[in-house]
Amino acid sequence: MFIKNKRLPIILTSIPFLLLLPLIAMQFTNQVNWSLFDFLVMGILLLGTGLTIDLILRTVKKKTHRIILGMFVLFLFFLIWIELAVGIFNTPFAGS
């Protein structure tokens, strides 16, 4: 089977490996306390970010526009992650 998009398998296999980091950390410390919902939300966030960056790389032709849009997507990812973790904007989705 010929796969046209070679980045998609990399994206899909890297997400579980990234989610293994907090799972392993939970075995050694009480400071990392994720529930199943936390893993699900982070998996969806990582998948959405990876697929969005892949879409940008496939559709945008100018290198400078790719870089700017990619940095914007990563900025949004980190902003959402920080809000979910500690709640810097005091939204209803804020963490503790």
Protein architecture, described:
- With 96 residues, the chain is an all-alpha fold.
- The protein has a domain at 34-87.
- Helix content is 73%, strand content 0%.
- The protein has helices at 7-28, 36-59, 63-86.
- The mean pLDDT is 92.
Quick tags:
96 residues; mainly alpha; 3 helices
What is the gyration radius calculated from CA atoms? 16 Å
Overall mean pLDDT stands at 92
Q: Separation of termini?
A: 47 Å
Number of strands: 0
* Main sheet overview: none
Judging from the principal axes of the Cα atoms, what is the shape?
Answer: flat
What percentage of the residues does DSSP assign to strands (E)?
Answer: under 5%
The number of helices is: 3
Determine the fraction of residues in helical runs and give it as a percent range.
over 70%
Order of helices and strands: HHH
Computed structural class: mainly alpha
Low-confidence stretches: none
Short description:
The protein is mostly helical. Helices cover 73% and strands 0% of the residues.
Any chance you could write out the topology, listing elements then pairs?
Elements: H1 7-28, H2 36-59, H3 63-86
Helix pairs in contact: 1-2, 2-3
